[in-house]
Amino acid sequence: MFRLLPRAPRRRPTSFLHRASRLLLVALPALALAQAASAQLFTDPDWKESPVPPAPEFDVRRMLQIDMPRVYDLQYGVDPKTLVVTGDGVVRYVAIAKSTGPGAAVNAFYDGVRCATGEIKTYARYSGDSWHPVENPEWASLNLAKTRYSLALAQQALCRNGAPRATADEMVRALRKPEYIN
């Protein structure tokens, strides 16, 4: 005699979207906690900026261009040798503005960006052949900054998810290959 065995319960095929949404339910809270811990590190109400060294030497020939609209025949960039991530979460660098027309004037700015708060501070300006320190430099919002190069630089290379990128080398790679921005 032939006897039927009980059927095993049939499993529904799990769709890609179903699996992805289940993964997101697990991953998003962990990501949010990590991001909050990172932001808390740099938004501490007792935060103090580390001492600022004098403006570093820069070389226009090393300039990595910042991707931004051309205005008044100026090119903006940063000397990669001047990029420094400090222990207090500030990214310091020398930004260069050079004209592309006749005369090729060069100006530079020794700036610091605080990714956690979206702020910039200019410590010194270079014109002629020397640095001129800014008296009482203060933090200002990147969105309200008079110079758009700082916002473009922060978005393209310096900051990621409210924190500075891990190293200056990573920032340089992001400037050289904009698709690296992840």
What's the gist of this structure?
The protein has helices at 16-42, 148-158, 168-176, and strands at 64-65, 74-78, 84-85, 90-99, 106-114, 119-127, 130-133, 140-141, 159-160, 163-164. It is of the alpha+beta class. The model is unreliable at 23-42 (pLDDT under 50).
List the helices and strands and how they pair.
Blueprint: H1 16-42, E1 64-65, E2 74-78, E3 84-85, E4 90-99, E5 106-114, E6 119-127, E7 130-133, E8 140-141, H2 148-158, E9 159-160, E10 163-164, H3 168-176
Antiparallel strand pairs: 1-2, 2-4, 3-4, 4-5, 5-6, 6-7, 6-8, 9-10
Helix pairs in contact: 2-3
Note down, in words, how this protein is organized.
This protein has a domain at about 60-180: Beta Barrel (Lipocalin). The N and C termini lie far apart (about 65 Å). The chain has helices at about 15-40, 150-160, 170-175, and strands at about 65, 75-80, 85, 90-100, 105-115, 120-125, 130-135, 140, 160, 165. It has three helices and ten strands, in the order H-E-E-E-E-E-E-E-E-H-E-E-H. With about 180 residues, the protein is an alpha+beta fold.
